[in-house]
Amino acid sequence: MKHLLLLLTATFSLSYAQAQTPTTPTYRVAVGVLGSYRTVGVLGEVRLTPHFGLKLAGVRNYDSTVPDEYSTAGIGQLAYYLPCRLTWLEPVVGLGGIYTRYHWKQYGQSGTVRDLNVGGSFGANVVFHPRLRTGVQVFVANGFRSAYSDNAMRISGRRLLALPALTLEVLL
After folding, report:
1. pTM above 0.90, yes or no
2. Per-residue confidence at 148, pLDDT binned at 50, 70, 90?
């Protein structure tokens, strides 16, 4: 009886583990757009293996509180697709770098602050058509605080930034 129970448990575990293994994606490249209430951008991905991909994004953020101030960013990440039994769901986490340019304009002066730092992301995509998917991604970055001094803006510290975005991608 003990051996039968052990055999049934092992069989169930193997079938569950097999169900956790994602199917090989039918695409190698994805291109799309992303956006939020203050952000617009383009998004691209190259799928390297069934579990790993390289994500690139170009983003522009508008700051409506200070006229003529905005930031642009370039994001590059290695993405890992978590195993999921649901074929239409793609949970993903990523880690990589982020380059930021912040254009400022105050008191008749203007300039640009540049920063290169580490960032990550997590989220989930829903594949609702063989060639289309949508999702929610949260980009997390070790962002900077800035302060005005001597008619210029300078980085004065660091802070954790979480930037949620909706995505829509075409799978090629």
Report:
1. no
2. confident
Q: How far apart are CA 145 and CA 67, in angstroms?
A: 18
The dihedral built from the CA positions of residue 170, 121, 83 and 86, taken in this order, carries a sign that is negative
Kindly tell me the sign of the dihedral angle through the C-alpha atoms of 45, 49, 50, 51: negative
Phi, psi angle pair for 50, to nearest 5°? -60, -25
Task: Specify the DSSP element, H or E, that contains 50.
Answer: none
Q: Are 36 and 166 in contact (CB under 8 A)?
A: yes
Q: Quote the percentage of the chain above a pLDDT of 70.
A: 85
- CB contact set of 131 (below 8 Å; sequence gap of 6+): 27, 170, 171, 172
Place of tokens 């008749």: 108
Cβ atoms 166, 42 nearer than 8 A? no
d(CA 45, CA 122): 15
Exposed / middle / buried, residue 82 (Cβ in 10 Å: 0-12, 13-18, 19+): middle
CB neighbour list of residue 162: distance below 8 Å, 6 or more residues apart = 138, 139, 140
Domains of the chain in sequence order: 23-171 (2.40.160.20)
Which residue(s) pair with 144 in the sheet? 158
